[in-house]
Design a protein that fits this description.
The protein has 334 residues and is of the alpha/beta class. Helices cover 52% and strands 10% of the residues. The protein contains ten helices and eight strands. A five-stranded parallel beta sheet has the order 5-4-6-7-8, sandwiched between helices. A three-stranded antiparallel beta sheet has the order 1-3-2. The longest helix is centred in the last third of the chain and has 48 residues, at 208-255. The chain is flat and about 95 Å long.
């Protein structure tokens, strides 16, 4: 459960005091409880609800690995923003917002690289080989760069979200974030436009105690999200190592001597098979009875012709019989 400031804590910190009624933004009407002595009073019950929602979003962003940039250049917020941002390991801007710090981030990265080069020269003894004038010029350059870019020296890419103390004071930063579609979490006083930030926290953005209370809640949510992400990564790493160890164990079990011996035992011997078993006696094949051949119709005329030819008298026999009959007739006449 995400811890957040209660209504009593917000009340004690003075979060309910808004701006003068003549300086209000009509869009903030739904967050105003009443007006008293020419000052708008903010509804802290709504503040608590919106604070809880903002903290949940911050936690989810950091749990997914996003970076949140803290921005607060007002005098009463500088030290608070710096301290809480360092505590949760996030980049911050507290001195002055340079135009293009988000929209022209590549140029800003080169300036950060220059600042880091000068710092390394100071540490490795290169400054000792420079003249007094050159050393002084580089010291001044480093001081200027560190004042504006020191808080974002570790930021390698555009942040995943921006936390702003005062949207009116930090209008340039807000506009750049809007242009790049970067989510904005902001404190919104009665003179602010609540439609610009993605997640607003309606409260007094001029009170140091209110800024301290809410900023510390934001830092706690960031730490909680980072812890959740770390636990998830450790769990995934443990599962991966377990799977790898199981795979290695299976591979070792397959390659072990016992497994090879087991394979040898199950293998059938190729030589010396022993006396061959007598072949089974072949079953006698039943003789099939030969059926009389049925002569086809085409064969029948041929057989008839052969029979007729056998029965027909030969021509020589006919002539001999005729000669004998003629001799008999001639003998009768004589």
């Amino acid at each position: 459960m995400q811890k957040h400031a209660s209504v009593d804590e917000l009340l004690k910190s003075g979060a309910h005091f808004g701006h003068l009624t003549r300086r209000w933004n009509p869009k903030m009407k739904e967050f105003i409880f009443m007006q008293r002595n020419g000052i708008h009073i903010i509804d802290l019950k709504k503040t608590e609800v919106f604070l809880k929602d903002a903290l949940e979003q911050v936690k989810n962003l950091t749990a997914s690995g996003k970076t949140i940039l803290f921005v607060g250049t007002k005098k009463q917020s500088r030290e608070i923003i710096k301290t809480e941002a360092i505590r949760c390991g996030m980049p911050f801007v507290t001195n002055r917002w340079l135009g293009g710090m988000l929209t022209n981030f590549e140029t800003v990265k080169r300036s950060i690289g220059r600042m880091q080069d000068i710092e390394s020269q100071r540490n490795d003894g290169t400054f000792e080989n420079l003249t007094k004038k050159e050393r002084l010029m580089r010291e001044r350059e480093y001081t200027k760069l560190e004042a504006t870019l020191g808080g974002i020296a570790t930021m390698n890419r555009v942040p995943g979200a921006v936390f702003v103390v005062d949207t009116v004071k930090e209008s340039i930063a807000v506009n750049e974030a809007v242009k790049l579609n970067i989510p904005i979490i902001a404190l919104a006083d009665t003179n602010s436009d609540p439609d610009i930030p993605d997640f607003i926290i309606p409260c007094n953005d001029d009170s140091a105690r209110t800024i301290q209370l809410i900023t510390s809640n934001i830092a706690d949510a960031i730490l909680e999200g980072m812890a959740e992400r770390q636990a998830r990564e450790e769990e995934e790493l443990a599962e991966q190592s377990l799977l790898e160890s199981q795979g290695k164990a299976e591979a070792e079990a397959k390659d072990s001597p016992a497994a090879k011996t087991r394979k040898r035992r199950t293998r059938k011997p190729e030589g010396n098979k022993g006396p061959a078993k007598p072949a089974a006696a072949a079953k006698p094949v039943a003789k099939r009875e030969s059926k009389p051949e049925v002569k086809s119709d085409a064969a029948k005329p041929a057989a008839a012709k052969e029979t007729a030819s056998k029965d027909a008298p030969k021509p020589e026999a006919k002539e001999a019989s005729k000669g004998k009959e003629a001799d008999k007739d001639s003998a009768k006449e004589a």
